[in-house]
Amino acid sequence: MTKRTRVALVFGGRSTEHAISCVTAGSVLEAIDRDKYDVVPIGIAADGRWVLEADDPGRYVLGGARRLPSVDGSRSPVALGAEGFDVVFPLLHGPWGEDGTIQGLLEMTDTRYVGSGVLASAVCMDKAFMKIVLADAGLPVMPGGVVTAREWEADPSGVKARIGELGFPLFVKPARGGSSIGIAKAHDVTELADAIEGALAHDPKVLVEVSAEGAREVECGVLETLDGGVETTLPAEIRVSADHEFYDFEAKYDAEQHTDLDVPADLPDDVVAQIRDMSARAFLATGCEGLARVDFFHLSDGSLVINELNTMPGFTPLSMFPRMWAHSGLEYADLVDRLIQLALRRDTGLR
């Protein structure tokens, strides 16, 4: 019999996106080809313990804010480096996973893994540094500024004056967060202070950006090809219902109630071409590998601005990234297979 490729799915983690990572893992567990892959689910509990988790997709279903799936830290402990995996599929979102940390661990153990490497993962996780890299590559980003916990504690009045010069309204977000957790819209100085305090509760580094008022939110999927090229999807659009001022956590994960996802987006052909070209350029400029989702604002004057790159985007079958690829003809199970095959073909170490 042909030996099956041994794949570790690593999920959960210490970030505030723990539950979303578990949902992603459940989707991959259900879709992955068991005839081709020997799958080992490894969960990282919120306190950092690594355990052998249940191979049960139904255990990781999102049931609203009051019923969030999580890793059971009391299960049998597991040592990643001692298990002899052929490839690791890190399904972690946010810090301590999507930010280059687990990628560094896997590099040190000479283990192949899905997705971007250490530097690209770290840069794209830190939205402030991501904007620097994109701007240096000639790609447009929204004006903004950074606030650190040290600055805020030492001189809050000075910070408010400096940031207020950007003009209101402003969006305030943890610089290294995701899933819209800790994000707030500030319409004046008083709301700005509250928003900074809220974001600092999640990250000691906060990014403040000018609000893209009246903009359309569009996304584009990027994927490496098996022959070393890069391909993109048609862009899709997120339309949030009037009861949400922006695409917050509830709108993202209770999308049937609060959000319409148009796949593909109704955009002029020249705008679609620009989005796809800029997505590929952003992927290469940040050194991404495997996959990424590039998020844009299509401004009211017709111009485009890159909001962010996600090196491990939401990955349930209902998430935008898999839906865009399904529309392009690559179904969910085949997308999972492509990513694993890309990881197996890639050398470990410097490249």
Secondary structure: elements and pairs:
Blueprint lengths: L4 E8 L5 H14 L5 E8 L5 E3 L34 E4 L10 H8 L9 H8 L1 H10 L7 E5 H6 L1 H9 L5 E5 L9 E3 L2 H12 L4 E6 L5 E9 L5 E3 L3 E5 L8 H5 L1 H4 E4 L6 H17 L5 E8 L5 E7 L9 H8 L4 H14 L6
Parallel strand pairs: 1-2, 1-4
Antiparallel strand pairs: 2-3, 5-8, 6-7, 6-8, 9-10, 9-11, 9-13, 11-12, 13-14
Question: If you had to describe this structure to a student in words, what would you say it looks like?
Answer:
33% of the residues lie in helices and 22% in strands. The chain has helices at 18-31, 101-108, 118-125, 127-136, 149-154, 156-164, 189-200, 249-253, 255-258, 269-285, 320-327, 332-345, and strands spanning 5-12, 37-44, 50-52, 87-90, 144-148, 170-174, 184-186, 205-210, 216-224, 230-232, 236-240, 259-262, 291-298, 304-310. The longest helix is centred in the C-terminal third of the chain and has 17 residues, at 269-285.
